[in-house]
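User: If you would, consider this record:
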Amino acid sequence: MPSLEALLHKSIPELKEIFLDRRRRVPRGLLEALESDNRNGAHQLAKQIRKRYRSNRSEGQRLHTLLRFEIELWAQGYALVAGVDEAGMAPLAGPVVAGAVILPQNYKLRGLNDSKKILDHEKREELALQIKHDAVCWAVGFAEVEEIDRINIYHAGLLAMQRALLGLSCLPNFVLVDARKIPQCPVPQRGIIRGDALSATIAAASIIAKTTRDAHMLELDALYAGYGFASHKGYPTPEHCRTLKELGALPIHRRSFGRVREVLGLDPIQNELFEEPPPSDVASVASA
């Protein structure tokens, strides 16, 4: 990094590129120098850098809070904590996909959050790549349409999560799951309501599950032209419902779902998307 004197000889756009765009560390004395600088834009740049400081502190605090369940478990001696979550419970077509991930202790990734809160798909992909690179290990599990129709969507979601967990290359000491508990789990586990928004490992698993399923639906879009799977990913959007009625059901449509059965002229058999777990199965943290 150049000296403070050398930096102050740079133009304001150059300084902005270094300290805002590239987010380089701000050397001691630079902010004060900018605030006393007579050049146009110097005071504004100082304000923007201070705003970046506040944003970094806020993000650091958010990420620390996102680790509260993991920190508690690490303190109890559970060194390898896995998070598990699924994606694709509501769509009319395609599989349910689950992700499982073990993150390094005290792992903090800027922007890590529940995949549903990350609306930019490129940002989700970027986070997924970083998580996969940094994770102790990760895996995905699928429950196919035929399995969804045979055992119902709730149990298919559990099956996908079970497969993701068992796909990990190392056995975790403890598992955190979004809202439910995985059948025949080989280690202790805890279901956390809204866990994908409250636990870093579950959030990471949700991003892996979502991006994996989205990529799979792009492949199906190439196989089944005209249905728009690349845009709606199988969810019951107005566009999907319209094409379903106009073009008919495909082999990848879930025949246990009411809207698909209606198109096929079958009686509805599934009124509820989710089964309610017993109160003792999950830990409510609404007051946390």
User: Anything to note?
Assistant: Confidence is low (pLDDT under 50) at residues 283-288. The chain has two domains: 4-64, 68-218+273-283. The first strand starts at residue 81 and ends at 87.
